[in-house]
Amino acid sequence: MFASVRLSLGFLTKRELVSYVLFVFFRALTGVLDVLGIVLIGAIAGIGASQLDTTGKPLTVFGITLPVLTQDTLLLLVLGVLGIFVIKAALAISLSRGITSLIASIESRNADIIAEYLLRGSLDSAKQYSKAQLQWAITGSITYTFTGLINNVATLITEGSLLVLIAGAFFLVDPVAAVAVLVYFAFIVFIIQVVIGRSLKKAGLDSYYGTVETTNSISDTLDTFREISVLAKQQIFIESISTSRAKIARSGGTMTFLSGMPRYVIETALILGVVIFVGQLFLTGQLASGIVTVGVFLTGGVRIMSSLLPVQSAVASMKNNAEQASLAQKILVQAGAPNVPALDRTRKPEIVHAEVLPAGGMAVSLDSVRFSYPGDEHDTIVGVTMEIVAGQHVAIIGPSGAGKTTLVDLVLGLVTPTEGTITIGGESPRDLREIAPGAVGYVPQKPGLVSGTIAQNIALGVRPEDVNYDRINEVVEAAYLTEFIASLPDGVHTSVGAQVDSLSGGQIQRLGVARALYPRPKLLVLDEATSGLDAGSEAFVSASLSKLGKDVTVIIIAHRLSTVQHSDVVHVVEAGQVTHSGKFSALRKSVPMVAEYVKLMSFDDK
Question: At what angle do helices 71-120 and 291-335 cross, to 10 degrees?
């Protein structure tokens, strides 16, 4: 638990840490006002007792003989005590607000770090985690990392400091009674932690795993809705969602029940302690002389109870939250690893939009590129050297598992070569993305759709007010979508959510092409973009590419040879290596694998 707290504190900047320490220090310092008020209440009780004493003997406290006060003076003293507690409450509220606001800003900043690390970093980094885990890291785990841990540390320190100050006041009044009271309350807290702490930790783990499992189950169900409906296999997915959701419900109920338990235990313990304490003074005939002690210990006991509850709750929450925070902490550690470039949030690179780059496509160069996935001893890409001339239309073919998609990921800068260099127009892929966003377009096998309109899906990542509708119309025409868009109720302003089930694979693929063309790229990469299309849709996509001419360099990954037969150059990839390169017409005669593909697909290449 405390190791997790130290880890969370390590994610604070120096300025944030100093601010946090100062807020906590001054919040703890307000406990002095509590102790002063408690001592004055004891003194007031003593003064009142001395004036009611029929023996006429003045009462002595700490060697000081208490004076006889008038009712007006006693009233002013009472009002003074009330004023102390009011001032203390006002200061505590202000400082607590400051702490929570500070922690909220820290949480927000670190959530941005996770998002940037995953979205701007390597594809390998994002692939380490499931979709549900990534959602949990940014929306839930990050909250437990900061609000759930260091906010509770602040509570633990401030309320713990108050308990120490009250204990000091007890020792000044009656050391023996102070020891007895402290041992008594310590025993109560120990019992609470033993009984409740372990159960809360387990409930926290169940909540985390249940949340991730539920998100995964729902995502899987929606992704395979048609298949499971046709196969009538809905029940197993319903049971999976039910089981994981029940785990969340049980853990939530357990945490709610256990979090309320300490209050009843401590309240009962306080009442029992007061009865025992007063009874002991009464039986020994010390009730009158011990009235100050009773006043201080009774008031202090109430204040101890109000501090023990948040202290116990903070400790229990920290045990639970440490488990919930582990995922966000793991990613933040990775984001700060020595081999990960630091995120310079003040850097404002000079951005050159793709549309103002020199005319013509961009040359692509791969020099002795090797790549292996983390934990894999074998190279997926083995010493690939390739030169793609600006404006060329190049195809890459090969058997499944040969490394074609990995090669594309390397060219796109989504993963970093283990050895060798890759440049696009003389820049590394990642640098090019920063200085000329949109210079590289990408069409995957299954383009993703986001919430919003058709236009927002084409102008992906562009703020609605910045969408260029003239350009939208241009790429809609280039992707042969004009007739389809015209059939929609609101044209390009039609919500995708309302039409998603009616979109065919070919229409979605052409939306992907329009999206890739929108920023006027100088390099366009298509990864199996036509593999799932019918002949008509494939012809539309091929026609779109032909329109580009030499203005855009095109790299096509494809199994369907009809898509690549008219490319300027075809590269054959086998076992992570480029084994053959040349015109398709020549390769079909000289490369047995290509000849076999032609035979299997039985098409006329003339």
Answer: 10
Nearest to 44 by CA among 75, 88, 83: 75
Give the helix/strand (H/E) hosting 388: strand 381-388
- DSSP class of residue 163 equals H
> What is the Cα–Cα distance from 354 to 347, expressed in whole angstroms?
20
DSSP per-residue codes, 45-83? HHHHHHHH-TT-PPPEETTEEPPP--HHHHHHHHHHHHH
* Whole-number average pLDDT of the chain: 80
Cβ-proximal residues to 450 (8 Å cutoff; 6+ apart), any chain: 456, 457, 460, 496
CATH numbers and ranges of domains, the chain: 2-335 (1.20.1560.10), 360-601 (3.40.50.300)
Instruction: Note the pLDDT tens digit of each residue in 320-371.
Output: 788 889 889 999 998 875 554 444 444 444 445 555 566 778 999 999 999 9
CA distance 317 to 201: 8
Q: Residue 194 is encoded by which pair of tokens?
A: 């033993």
3-class state of residue 398 by DSSP: coil
C-alpha to C-alpha distances, 129 to 155, 209, 394, 404, nearest whole angstrom: 33, 14, 33, 23
Quick check: 395 and 564 in contact, CB under 8 A? yes
Candidate from 30-44, 100-114, 446-460 with smallest mean pLDDT: 30-44
pLDDT tens-place string over residues 211-258: 888 887 887 777 676 567 666 777 878 888 888 888 888 888 887 777
Question: Are 368 and 419 spatial neighbours (Cβ–Cβ below 8 Å)?
Answer: yes
Task: Note the pLDDT of residue 472.
Answer: 92
> Strands 364-371 and 381-388, how do they pair?
antiparallel
Angle at alpha carbon of residue 503, lines to 502 and 508, rounded to 5°? 170
Report the DSSP beta bridge partners of residue 442: 525
* Residue 419 near residue 370, CB atoms below 8 Å: yes
pLDDT tier at 48 (50, 70, 90 boundaries)?
low
pLDDT surpasses 50 at 474: yes
DSSP three-state, residue 230: helix
Taking the CB of residue 393, how many other CB atoms lie within 10 A of it? 22
Structure tokens that stand for 156 in this block: 């633990």
Q: Please write the tens of the pLDDT for every residue from 527-568.
A: 887 766 667 767 777 777 777 778 889 999 887 777 788 888
